[in-house]
Write a structure and sequence with these properties.
With 102 residues, this protein is an alpha+beta fold. The chain contains two helices and five strands. Strands 1, 2, 3, 4 and 5 form a five-stranded antiparallel beta sheet that branches.
């Protein structure tokens, strides 16, 4: 009986640690999201990127089991570097460090 209780408490502790994931800091999540985004755009001739005024990470906030990062970027040849030609996206950086764009 004590063994089952110890296993249950350990499982709850591990789950709580994964839900909080203190090793995924906002800075790490932002850098990870940018790196994965840029890696996905490699080899695309007219792809998307952060080489525009005001582009980059706008927000990185903690969430359950990871962090949510909001990015601003531009795609293709722009007639002008104006905010109306920019796009925004969100990425979830999980407690394992994987990045999932929504």
């Amino acid at each position: 009986m004590k063994f089952k209780l110890a296993i249950c408490l350990a499982a709850v502790g591990i789950l709580a640690l994964l839900a909080w994931c203190p090793w995924i800091t906002p800075d790490f999540a932002a850098a990870r999201a940018v790196n994965v985004f840029e890696e996905r755009q490699k080899g695309i001739v007219d792809g998307c990127g952060f080489n525009c005024k005001g582009c980059g990470v706008k927000e990185a906030a903690r969430a359950w089991f990871g962090s949510v990062v909001t990015i601003e970027y531009a795609c293709g040849l722009l007639p002008a570097d104006l905010p109306q030609y920019h796009r925004t996206g969100r990425a979830f950086v999980s407690c394992l460090g994987t990045v999932h764009f929504t």
